[in-house]
Amino acid sequence: MASNLSLMQLKILIMMCSIALPSDSSAQNVPQFGDREQLLPQPPNIVVILADDIGVGDISFYRNRFSKRKPVVSTANIDALAQQGVWFADAHSATALCAPTRYAVMTGKNNYRSYAPWGVWGSFQPNAISAEEPTLGNVLKMQGYNTGFIGK
Prior knowledge:
Elements: H1 7-19, H2 36-39, H3 60-67, H4 76-84, H5 98-107, H6 136-142
Pfam families: Sulfatase
Domain Sulfatase N-terminal: 44-152
Protein name: Sulfatase N-terminal domain-containing protein
């Protein structure tokens, strides 16, 4: 399955995985005694939060950091994740719709260049991602991660 990836797709998937890793490896808890498996460092947790129509001022971590103004809504849990992990100050989407963005995050492909369906995908339409196509979840699963997708 992974052999079907082009070099560019593989680079994008590796980049997506690496940017989701925490920047401080000392945060991993490794027991001092026990079985060999317990002594091996555990892979870091990867959490990707993808939200539609969100601005830099909508998450209190960004609002405090960039505008120095009090947030309208406190997002304490997201703020804690941002302080412990990797965060981005500049992001752009090739499309203004949610489905092509999710397609790009999951496959590492730009939907316009891969001729994937675009626009809003309905529940009763064929799946835009074939079962054989590698996705971020599949690649992480091959590395021993438990994966899940919640949302649309």
